[in-house]
Amino acid sequence: MDNMDELLQEKKERNKLQLMRIRNLPSIPTVIIEVSEMLENPRASAKDISHVISQDQGLVAKVLTIANSPLYGLPRRVSSIDFAVVVLGFEQIKNLVYALTLMEAFKSVSSKYWNKKKFWSHSFVTGMLAKKIADDLGYPKSSEALTSGLLHDLGISVIQRYFNDEFVRISELVELEEIPYAQAEMEVLGMTHEEIGYLLINKWNLPLDLGEMIRFHHNPSKAETNKKLTAIVHFADYMTQVTGIGDFNWDENYQLDGNLVDILSLGSDVYVSALISTYSQILTKEFKDIF
């Protein structure tokens, strides 16, 4: 066996090790199970669902923050979870609870290479803009775009919390050797944060479209079950880097997928450029003073 074969075998074994460790990640959060069961109960009321959500004040604050975002487009301020459930509807509330609870499950304190506020801002802006893009393009389930945008980088938070030594090594490689994060992830973990997020979604038996979006949000052309949803999140993610509003360091040198025009039926690159200008203005207007 030559050196190249040895390196490939070593990487293969490392991948297996990481997969075994990922299987030891926590079970799906209880609040998701409770809300899902309640939504399947035809007798459940908005008040019942509100009661479950209200037990987690951090979750309450984030739901209200999203519901009151200018990009959500609600005509009046949402001041309570009860009202949010009524205004947004059961399906959108379920999607929000899924996304926000998963994010909460992997939150951790800031450190030299981890800015938790920056990560939340990036997830928030990507989710809100993904919903706006979905609405503008007539995508029928814009709440899915919001959820997907919130969770697209779930794998990064998993690495940071559960593989912190590797997270630090990845960050140091990028800082000292000036290589892309994707390359550093492969060198240290043998897989990317997109793959890790995808594996976690599968472990929890959450929707296939969500898992595939996470796996291919940097390359929506590779998606199979829902290219359009993946491309919408990809576009929103790209816009955070273009504007510097809600941007995140792991997305440095972000490249827009060359097939975006065809996937989203945008007509031409000229129209894409016009959209980039429009969404840049929207983000600057709505979020510049916040982030």
What's the structural blueprint in terms of helices and strands?
Layout: H1 3-22, H2 30-39, H3 46-54, H4 57-67, H5 81-88, H6 90-105, H7 116-136, H8 142-151, H9 154-162, H10 164-177, H11 181-189, H12 193-203, H13 208-216, H14 227-243, H15 260-263, H16 269-287
Walk me through the structure:
This protein is an all-alpha fold and 291 residues long. The chain has one domain: Orthogonal Bundle (Hypothetical protein af1432), CATH 1.10.3210.10. 68% of the residues lie in helices and 0% in strands. It contains 16 helices and no strands. The longest helix is centred in the middle third of the chain and has 21 residues. It is globular, with a radius of gyration of 19 Å.
In brief:
Helix content is 68%, strand content 0%.
Please describe the structure with a list of short key phrases separated by commas or semicolons.
Hypothetical protein af1432; mainly alpha; 291 residues; 0% strand; 16 helices
Question: How many separate domains?
Answer: 1
Overall outline: globular
Count of DSSP-assigned helices:
16
Order of helices and strands: HHHHHHHHHHHHHHHH
Largest sheet report: none
Which structural category fits the helices and strands?
A: mainly alpha
Approximately how much helix is present in the residues? 55-70%
In the CATH hierarchy, the architecture is Orthogonal Bundle
The CATH homologous superfamily: Hypothetical protein af1432
Q: What fraction of residues sit in β-strands?
A: under 5%
pLDDT averaged residue by residue: 85
CA(first)-CA(last) distance: 53 Å
